[in-house]
Specification:
single chain, 193 residues, alpha/beta, Rossmann fold, 8 helices, 54% helix
Length: 193
């Protein structure tokens, strides 16, 4: 791929967005970033990856005026690293408000993956070895956390189509079909050959 292309993927929990992003990056032969930002932030800050992962994609208000908490510090570090990566290489980036952080890049496509609730619950049950009641509870909790995080750091509504170029219902297209749809879209946009 001669052109530099950035794909951001926002996703509902259980929709397969991360898996779609991984397969897309592999098929295009480009870098994939999700939790890798935690490793980079850990090396930069000296905080353990475990400590950072507990603050990852969490909105936590500081109770002290003019003082950042770890969630805010992590968001700023990940945002800076994300921008550096987007300026230097083709890549797929999952989550972390990447659609807003990279909104001014000309060579970027913002994708949002969603799914029917039953599809998400089934996926969560399989991936986490949970019964249906626990899977539904985890789905509700995780989506609330993601929505709060996104709104806290962007002042935008999570999943709102205003900041997205393409919305994909993975219940209909499946994982591989979603990858194919994104590739076709990138070709139409002229972002890849």
């Amino acid at each position: 791929m001669a052109k530099r292309c950035i794909v951001t993927i926002g996703r509902e929990y259980g929709s397969g967005g991360r898996e779609i992003g991984e397969k897309l990056a592999e098929k295009l032969g480009i870098s994939f970033y999700d939790r890798q930002f935690l490793e980079m932030a850990s090396l930069e800050t000296g905080y353990s990856e475990d400590a950072l992962s507990r603050q990852d994609e969490i909105a936590e208000k500081s109770y002290f005026p003019y003082r950042e908490n770890l969630s805010e510090e992590l968001f700023k570090i990940q945002s800076r690293i994300m921008i550096e990566k987007a300026k230097s290489e083709s890549c797929v980036i999952v989550g972390r408000c990447s659609d807003i952080i990279l909104k001014d890049f000309a060579n970027v496509a913002h994708i949002f993956v969603y799914a029917h609730e039953e599809t998400k619950v089934r996926h969560i049950m399989e991936r986490n070895n949970l019964d249906e009641v626990k899977a539904r509870k985890l789905l509700k909790k995780t989506e609330k956390i993601r929505r709060t995080y996104y709104q806290y750091f962007t002042d935008c509504d999570w999943g709102d189509r205003e900041n997205k170029d393409l919305l994909i219902n993975s219940s209909v297209t499946g994982i591989d079909g979603s990858v194919d749809v994104i590739i076709a879209y990138l070709k139409v946009r002229g972002l890849i050959d």
